Amino acid sequence: MIERLASPIASIVSSYDTYGLINHTSGNNLPSRESIQQILRDIQGLLFPGFGESELIDPENLHLKTAERVYRLAQALVAEIEKSLSFTCRTGTFSCDGSACREMAETITVEFFSALPEIRRLLSLDVEAAFQGDPAAKSIEEVIVAYPGLRAIATHRVAHFFWNRQVPLIPRIMSEIIHGETGIDIHPGATIGESFFIDHGTGVVIGETTVIGRNVKIYQGVTLGALSVDKSQGNTKRHPTIEDDVTIYAGATILGGETTIGEGCIIGGNVWLTESVPPHRVVYVKTGEHIIKPRKK
Amino acid sequence: MIERLASPIASIVSSYDTYGLINHTSGNNLPSRESIQQILRDIQGLLFPGFGESELIDPENLHLKTAERVYRLAQALVAEIEKSLSFTCRTGTFSCDGSACREMAETITVEFFSALPEIRRLLSLDVEAAFQGDPAAKSIEEVIVAYPGLRAIATHRVAHFFWNRQVPLIPRIMSEIIHGETGIDIHPGATIGESFFIDHGTGVVIGETTVIGRNVKIYQGVTLGALSVDKSQGNTKRHPTIEDDVTIYAGATILGGETTIGEGCIIGGNVWLTESVPPHRVVYVKTGEHIIKPRKK
Amino acid sequence: MIERLASPIASIVSSYDTYGLINHTSGNNLPSRESIQQILRDIQGLLFPGFGESELIDPENLHLKTAERVYRLAQALVAEIEKSLSFTCRTGTFSCDGSACREMAETITVEFFSALPEIRRLLSLDVEAAFQGDPAAKSIEEVIVAYPGLRAIATHRVAHFFWNRQVPLIPRIMSEIIHGETGIDIHPGATIGESFFIDHGTGVVIGETTVIGRNVKIYQGVTLGALSVDKSQGNTKRHPTIEDDVTIYAGATILGGETTIGEGCIIGGNVWLTESVPPHRVVYVKTGEHIIKPRKK
Amino acid sequence: MIERLASPIASIVSSYDTYGLINHTSGNNLPSRESIQQILRDIQGLLFPGFGESELIDPENLHLKTAERVYRLAQALVAEIEKSLSFTCRTGTFSCDGSACREMAETITVEFFSALPEIRRLLSLDVEAAFQGDPAAKSIEEVIVAYPGLRAIATHRVAHFFWNRQVPLIPRIMSEIIHGETGIDIHPGATIGESFFIDHGTGVVIGETTVIGRNVKIYQGVTLGALSVDKSQGNTKRHPTIEDDVTIYAGATILGGETTIGEGCIIGGNVWLTESVPPHRVVYVKTGEHIIKPRKK
Amino acid sequence: MIERLASPIASIVSSYDTYGLINHTSGNNLPSRESIQQILRDIQGLLFPGFGESELIDPENLHLKTAERVYRLAQALVAEIEKSLSFTCRTGTFSCDGSACREMAETITVEFFSALPEIRRLLSLDVEAAFQGDPAAKSIEEVIVAYPGLRAIATHRVAHFFWNRQVPLIPRIMSEIIHGETGIDIHPGATIGESFFIDHGTGVVIGETTVIGRNVKIYQGVTLGALSVDKSQGNTKRHPTIEDDVTIYAGATILGGETTIGEGCIIGGNVWLTESVPPHRVVYVKTGEHIIKPRKK
Amino acid sequence: MIERLASPIASIVSSYDTYGLINHTSGNNLPSRESIQQILRDIQGLLFPGFGESELIDPENLHLKTAERVYRLAQALVAEIEKSLSFTCRTGTFSCDGSACREMAETITVEFFSALPEIRRLLSLDVEAAFQGDPAAKSIEEVIVAYPGLRAIATHRVAHFFWNRQVPLIPRIMSEIIHGETGIDIHPGATIGESFFIDHGTGVVIGETTVIGRNVKIYQGVTLGALSVDKSQGNTKRHPTIEDDVTIYAGATILGGETTIGEGCIIGGNVWLTESVPPHRVVYVKTGEHIIKPRKK
Asked: How far is C249 from chain D (nearest CA, A)?
């Protein structure tokens, strides 16, 4: 069999020349999905201390453990961010003076830790919103250990920080990791206000230029998407704006950069919207949309 | 960089006081997601012996292996259930005489193993239903190793047992683990009859007070949900009842605690129902709901 | 507690006789999900060299590493394929002269490596299609490290190879592994042309006998499914045909083996189709399908 | 480099024919060193419960944990012993009716667990002897967690059980594992009485046919060995007999199958003995064996 | 077989009552060997930064990595030391006001890190001594990565710190871990001066009350031991004193608490000493101690 | 406690400047002990195929597995050897044109694989010698799985290859790994002939310039060492020569570069030799070297 494999091996290696687009076999490393996954796990430990540990945490070792985590994370973040920045330096879509990548990685890392208390403030509001928003939620702890929507929004708030600092690749890898785990696909560019709650969540898509206000609640299968996908337009606002206190039920689709759902609206399940709705409206699918008849035997 | 991190660390630690809602830094441990995941894996080995093992199992070591698994699982279950019960003891939403948590954990664990043969009986009917229900299924073995719907219903039948014993947190953690893996979100409170089959499954949501009869088949994206989410109503029946021999096609949404889909109904894809349907009806979306016109060049 | 467990253990073991359908406790092993997962990871390394590694790859060790990977994969593939073939030999649904399983496993394995350059050619077109098709995509590298649709199509092209060689179980285990990770469910039997792009992807279902042309783009929640599921019909064409240059937006459902979406069509979001559409048409949901009214206070 | 490796690979593979003595590439498996290591670790947990665990053990879970350990160990032991017995069946140096290997493996395993209480009785005497025998020992617990001599004797008492049941290879693998960890080389054939203590231990060698009485204490570097090594003599008694209450100091060498150290003797450090010593004697190296003179500058 | 194991299990569990001396099944945990092993590995990283890492360390991440390591180690040390102190509190051989164990553990931990620079100073002298003392040593780096004597003395200097703080069990577990790895058994109580070098090292034993001066060099198999082992004498000085600039060759044995080897002495291989030697002497085994005669055919 | 650690951390970091000798915090990496350990494990699999695997190996997958192992090993060896060569390039004790390190690493690696059949030939003779030399050895397989002397000589023959190619550090790391596991310390520079057997082995030391002939057998505690250790002499022959067919019993010490033990000699236990012995002599310790007297009560 060894002999029969010799020729396929040679062909595979030669295909690395022929279809080189999908190789990454020279130049520096890219940030690694495994490292980003570990980083997200460590950040989650910083955000929700005491959940997910198997040992008791008391005030004293909380302090020590926090310091250790920050230092470990700092090393990992600096390394991965530096790889990301170097990647765009090389490919030229991002303006950074080559030698400055490391320094910029350190600055962004320090800023990230400085931003963590504010992220924690937002997340404690998100947790509260989930607990209030779901009659099936029995405790705050249940929300934290068993609601995928909360894990998705927590990851988004972290990824969005790095997106705002123009770190390439890493925010998208973060959003895809949590997309894979929860079925909730929030582009790291999306702007999301306080007290956001996603229930069930599978199939939710929130596009790059979406803007969401405060106290917004959305259900599984909701799409906040774009109408057209003309790449030449670049980064114009292609996704809708959702104002404060809006609820969007399962399966609703809201499309377009100029579509605004006004404050206090309720958007019913499966509704398909490509135009704005004024504040304080209820939008729902017309009844009688289906036919009922006896089943043939 | 060490110096620049000192202040963020202090702020993070101080945020553990300010936004304390999302810490779990005192009191006993909560049940751990990792342990529950391991428990589910071991239970799966008990339910479907010989699948997923890399060594041959013969009758003799099946017996030994079963005993070992039961004893290992028993320790893990008692430990996690005790943590769960203690958690509600502390927070006061569950009535258990503090010192009795351990004893109750043991009793529930023994009852769980006693219930396993009945769960296996139900699962063998579910497997049969999947094999009969999907023309693409080539063998019983394929159903067991490659149908996410089967893994979801198996996990549900286990989680439902603990839900019925009023074990907090654990059933929800179980349902979220399998939700993450399959995109199928069945609340552990849902009551599901014999010979249940979910095909494809991504996006399925089945709410806490849903009641499902025998020989029911549902497809991806089906929601059995609630109409209103007023937390103050408590645990009233908010989700529909599906009677025997009902088929619900992809993307259908059925809402409300008083909505009953009668025996033998077929609910078409994307149908949106908030009212009951009498037995033996076919419900489908009205044709001609869309417009076809030439594509502009 | 030991004593209280004795009787449940005996019942569980005896249930292995009573409900034997879901045991696999005699005969040879089945292919293991864990092994297939490892195989997919190794294949991904062969397809996209340099992504996902933590060390730099230069031309020289690329060659060595490729040879090592091929030899490791070859052993694993031969072992798992042999188990698969033996399984159907035993159950009799596949015609292979018992003693020939090993030899056939080797031949299929060698052919698979010979097919890898062509699979790489297809994937480089898929990557290009994704980059062109999504305005949010910032680089080719981002597509490879962060687009679940690409991972799904890559896995499909591999699984489809083994499906065509009539290897049982393995292709379906592969498609379910990636279904679990991405929410995209492509049956390994589906035929998919060049430059295929799935955006977001959660909830996509593509059935066994689907045929898809070139330059097709589909979004999350799209179903390409069957109308009827009468198992007795066997493997007739039950799923639609999608011709070249078709775009299908989120949530659209296209059903039936004789349903053909003609070249260059655009199928709008949430459209439900069970009949063919001629080429170069746009199909969309009729506007005014919903009601807007003021929200009650 | 790939090309330059082709010829060495071919030579290596062809050397598997030429020097076949040291291959094990056909026939059944041998017992695996890794499995035996895991078995020893589990046995140690049964012998000294509560040491080396990271969780508290209370009387209730001690019982459950013991049962689980016994069942896990039973499977592992039966599997490894069966491989051992089959090995000698095949090579013909051990008389076992081929098909009976499995049954014999089970019987020996059950007998081993039946023998564990007696082994525990012996070990509690050995622990006591170590604590009494070393003025540096501060507690019983220190002896158990930090005395290599105790780990060596515990492993020996286990290995000796299997030696007596004529299990091939396994007892020797056990003795070599602990030899590697402690530098103490006790052949599993050696017969050792109650209350045995080895201090420090590095370099101790105790041969196959050694017989040691009760309350014997030996120090590092002691050899109880053979005078001649004529393989043709077979398993005659080649190593000494040490009667009760003997102490042997560091570096002493006692050789020969007919050499008996009488009850109550003290053998001084570095003594070299090839003849018997009557009871209650002290043997020591003659003083004045070395020269002292000024050091040259 | 299940049935045949029931009775042995019951006997084993009942033996936990009968021979309770060697259980540790109630009360708090003991320090765990695995944790101490991990602690030693982390300390080694602090002592010899850049050795044993697989990534490059530059001045910047050295600082961050040091801080992280210190915080991680601090938590582990406090936890294990607290267990140790609690152990002696319970058994009463150590005078610590129960509630003060945690506080004392923290103080000792902080003091340990404060002592690390001094330990590093000593180790850099030990490394230099090894490099100078062995003509086979090709570089300083070789001494650090490949000399077991250096690993033993490094571990000893750490264990000795905790011994001086009267931490129970942990120093002995440390010394046994390195004894197992190197065959060098240095009791943590021994006092060892600057620039100490052990070559080869297997079989070296250095007792609890040994005192060693500066620039001492010893070879494999050297014992610095006690003459008598009367436990009732308690912790009197039982082991020798070795003054500055002494070399002791392989296999030499020096015994007794009042035995002093004077400054600058050279003790030859295999010499057996129980009395003091004045400074600047050479001691060696008398020549002609063996017989040479023709070999019999 | 965080505050109390700040100052120790600063001191530790500053000690990295003060005692820089034992840092390795700049420049390239050294070869890693963990990698070398893995390399040794893989080489052992190549040398003794089928031992230590848990799956059956048949002729077909032996070939595939061999190729995979060689390619994996080749990468690891090239990487570690390149680090080693670069290390001496930098420190200047080895003459290699900087840029040539990689190329030289590849050449040495290819030569190593070419040398493996000869190493296997030598090892099959060593195995045979062990089996013949120890009456306690029951089978060839026992020698391979349970004789530390064999593992030590196998590692030596590998390390010696790299020593001869002047690869720095790696041969010494290899010899120390096996020294730690077996207590047998063979310097990689030693020259050892065919059919070499070490029994028991703990405490054996064989120095860098030792030369050993064919059919030599040595026992535990034997030292083949140097008389003087004057570093300035450099790499002169400092260790003895042992001619063919010599046996050296336990604890014997033979010292000096001009000391030759003639063909066919037998050196008795504990003999101390610093001068040559002509061929065919027996050397043993004079009897009557110790005193026997009654023990005092």
From this structure: 48
User: If you measure CA to CA, which chain A residue comes closest to F4?
Assistant: A64
- Of D153, D184, D215, the position where a domain reaches its end is D184
Compute the 3-state secondary structure of chain C and give helix, strand, coil in percent, each to the nearest 5. Answer: 50, 15, 40
Would you give the DSSP letter of residue F143? H
As a whole number of Å, the CA-based R_g of chain E is 23
Query: What is the DSSP annotation of A113-152?
Result: HHHHHHHHHHHHHHHHHHHHH-TT---HHHHHHH-HHHHH
Same domain, B166 and B60: yes
Q: How far is residue B182's CA from residue B184's CA, in Å, rounded to a whole number?
A: 5
Q: Considering the domain boundaries, does residue D75 fall inside one?
A: yes
Measured between beta carbons, which residues in chain C are less than 8 angstroms from residue F67?
A: 67, 71
Please count the CA atoms within 13 angstroms of the CA of A55 that sit on its side-chain side: 12
- Put simply, the answer to whether B68 touches D64 (Cβ < 8 Å) is no
pLDDT of A270-281, one tens digit each?
Answer: 888 999 999 999
Are residue C160 and residue C84 in the same domain, yes or no? yes
Domain-located, residue B63: yes
8 Å CB contact of E283 and D290: yes
Does F121 share its domain with F223?
no
Q: Which domain holds residue F221?
A: 203-297
State the ipTM, two decimals. 0.92
Q: C176 and C106 in one domain?
A: yes
Distance set, CA D43 to CA D51, D70, D143, D158, D168 (Å) = 12, 9, 18, 9, 19
End-of-domain residue from the set A131, A154, A183: A183
What's the pLDDT score for residue D55?
Answer: 60
Q: Report the CATH number at residue A296.
A: 2.160.10.10
* pLDDT one-digit tens code per residue, B232-257: 666 789 999 999 999 999 999 999 99
Min Cα–Cα distance to chain A from F124, Å: 27
Instruction: Check if the beta carbon of residue C208 is closer than 8 Å to that of residue C187.
Output: yes
- For residue E233, list chain D residues with Cβ-Cβ distance below 8 A: 135
Shared domain for B144 and B211, answered yes or no, is no
Q: How far apart are CA F279 and CA E152, in angstroms?
A: 40
Q: Which two tokens stand for residue E148?
A: 């077991």
Flag whether F281 is in a domain.
yes
Q: Is the residue at B135 inside a domain?
A: yes
Local mean pLDDT, 10-residue blocks, chain F (297 residues):
84 86 73 92 92 69 88 93 84 60 93 96 97 92 95 98 96 97 97 97 96 97 86 81 97 95 94 93 77 79
Same domain membership, residue C271 and residue C166: no
- Give the DSSP letter string of C106-147: HHHHHHHHHHHHHHHHHHHHHHHHHHHH-TT---HHHHHHH-
Number of folded domains that form chain C = 2
CB < 8 Å to D74, chain E: 1, 5
Query: At B53, which CATH number?
Result: 1.10.3130.10
d(Cα B78, Cα B74) in Å, to the nearest integer?
6
Q: Does the beta-carbon distance from F2 to A67 stay under 8 Å?
A: yes
Q: Is the CB of residue A259 less than 8 Å from the CB of residue A278?
A: no
If asked whether residues B69 and B161 sit together in one domain, one would say yes
Residues 6+ apart with CB under 8 A from A103: none
Most confident of A258-262, A268-272, E13-17: A258-262
Q: Write the DSSP string, E144-164.
A: HHH-HHHHHHHHHHHHHHHHH
Residues D169 and D247 reside in one and the same domain: no
Contact D200, E185 (CB under 8 A): yes
CA distance D34 to B146: 33
Residue with tokens 């030439």: B294
Contact criterion met (CB below 8 Å) for B22 and B60: no
> Which residues are CB-neighbours of D146 under 8 A, at least 6 positions away?
E169, E172, E173, E175, E176
pLDDT at res. B53: 66
